[in-house]
Amino acid sequence: MTGVLEGPRSPEAAVSQAVTEGRDRPVDLLTRFGRAVANDPSGTAVHAHGSSLTFAGLDRRTAEVAGELTRLGVAPGERVGVSLPRGADLVVALLAVWRAGAAYVPIDPAYPQERRHGMVRDAGVRVLVTAGVDGADGAWPDGVRTVDAGRPTAAADGPPAPPVPVTADTPAYVIYTSGSTGTPKGVETTRGGVAALVDGLEEAGMYAAQPRVVAWNASVSFDASVQQWARVCRGDTLVVLGEDERTDPARLVETLDAYGVQDLDLTPSHWHLLRADLLVRAAEGRAEALRLFMGGEPVPEQTWRELAEARAGGRLEALNLYGPTECTVDATAAWIEGGTPHIGPALAGVRVYVLDDGLQPVADGAQGELYLAGPQVALGYVNRPAQTATRFVADPFAADGTRMYRTGDKVRARADGALEYLGRIDRQVKIRGYRVELGEIEAALAGQPGVAAAAVTLHRSPVSGEQLVAYFVAAADAADAADAADGVPTAETLRGRLAGVLPQFMLPTVYTALDALPLTVNGKVDVAALPAPEESADPAAHEAPDDAPEGEAEKLIAAVWSEVLGRGHIRAGDDFFAMGGHSLIALRVVARLKKQFGIAMSAREVYRHPRLRDLARHVDALRAGA
């Protein structure tokens, strides 16, 4: 049978031998952090926003926060919320939660309050590490205690208490992913799973033997962050990228050069926006070869060829990483070199199966669904036993009663053991690295006043890239509603309401009103029959628009928006995000404005000034200041 596929071992496999207690029991990351502190206490552990922490300093601050958590009664295995912006305090908080023997639950401060509160309640969080907010202002549900990561209560007398002992099965973190039933679901992983992840990447030679300088790029709410921030436990130096640095190609390159960054994690979509600057940097040979850890979405064939050529040049090398949150970040990995895109063989300790609908191995070279097994498989979904039982099933090929995870991904095994990714078997999509269940967005949209039915699809535009497109049917009584706010919904009102319950990356960028959703003979929404966004444009868009842009800045911004958004007519009062803009397109807008006007600007400023007229005024102010 195709059966178990495991990857080859590299010459650097011996690296992990020194940090492994028995071949099947990788050392816990917090134990390894203690060794890193002892080996190089004065070495730099973290760079963030112009400040730094040594390993000894990071250890001391971690112990202080962990002590505060223990004094608040945090018990081993308990879930502790962490809601902090990017910075050194975030690294301190994550390590402190582990030191207290608990599991961290990342809660993005930018999420809508309703979503943050829902995550806190669902995870059973009663203590939360944040930035000096006591919760009295309604930021958190009643009864939640907070700890200030920057200024914990004075530590007890004497040396800091050692880390709370844990086992491989102790929960490590709970990361919430989009849920097909309409609410996000928390995936709970183990400390042993995280240790196995790092050990597997070391064995494959993808983590170098010697300490490296690593840029932390991904959101802490995204599971790829674990593979980045936890490297400080190996003795690597962590450079925490700020929002401006990670979204501005020029500033990112400056940061890479300033700190001598050697490893950078990013999605293929992010690479597409940074590629010109990073390729120039590689060609000029200003630093040693940069190693890219690429994941979150499939690597396009053109990108694969480009990175393979760069690797051949010796100044840039890239890895393709694949894995669901339910299998602790990465399950397979491959160097991007030669040939065509693939997701590589399994990491050490991970077992992969390519099975048919009857859980039988498919023939060699045939496509099937990918199942994953081994120590990295998560514990399951928090408070969702039925969903856990559906996705985490008994491994029929193991004699020890362990489980395997059903990924929902279609793959094909090549003769060399590498896997080719062929897409999804369900309605889950990846957009800009985030995993999104379209059903969750549909449920939120259908729950809005005046909406009778809703459907959401992922549309790929050659101009603006991937975007979520919403279709809705107004309720029969919406037009007669006495309250105008509950009348016939518009794209603007729907987007505003959804922004109160969904994170920004899940907001549809195009909204189309239909008399009825097209259905198949089985009564399901006929996705293929939904009109493309271009076919559903406002008829008034073909007329001369009111509120036409005026002045040099407004006219230039309108021209740029028209180009990057694929819109024919732009008004001065239009909202960039309501028209389909998102973070990656905002980068393109900023690049054009900087090139045209020679001003220093970041993508964050487009978020602060989303309406064209307001952005033009801001640009004029920057030009005047320059």
Short description:
By secondary structure, the chain is α/β, with parallel strands linked by helices. Helices cover 31% and strands 21% of the residues.
What does this structure look like?
By secondary structure, this protein is α/β, with parallel strands linked by helices. The chain has 3 domains: 13-421, ANL, N-terminal domain (Rossmann fold), CATH 3.40.50; 440-536, ANL, C-terminal domain (GMP Synthetase, Chain A, domain 3), CATH 3.30.300; 551-625, ACP-like (Non-ribosomal Peptide Synthetase Peptidyl Carrier Protein, Chain A). Helix 15 runs antiparallel to helix 16 (583-597). It is globular and about 70 Å long. Keywords: Phosphopantetheine, Phosphoprotein. This is Amino acid adenylation domain-containing protein. InterPro entries: AA_adenyl_dom, ACP-like_sf, AMP-bd_C, AMP-bd_C_sf, AMP-binding_CS, AMP-dep_synth/lig_dom, PKS_PP-bd, PP-bd_ACP. Residues 1-21 are annotated as: Disordered.
Query: What value does the Rg take, in angstroms?
Result: 25 Å
Tell me the number of helical segments per DSSP (H or I, 4 or more residues long). Answer: 18
By DSSP, the count of extended strands is: 25
Largest sheet: 8 strands, mixed
What's the N-to-C terminus distance? 68 Å
Query: Within the largest sheet, what's the order of strands?
Result: 2-1-10-9-11-12-13-14
What is the mean pLDDT?
A: 86
List the domain count as a whole number. 3
List low-pLDDT spans: 7-23, 535-544
Region (Disordered): 1-21
Pfam families: AMP-binding (PF00501), AMP-binding_C (PF13193), PP-binding (PF00550)
Organism: Streptomyces nondiastaticus
Keywords: Phosphopantetheine, Phosphoprotein
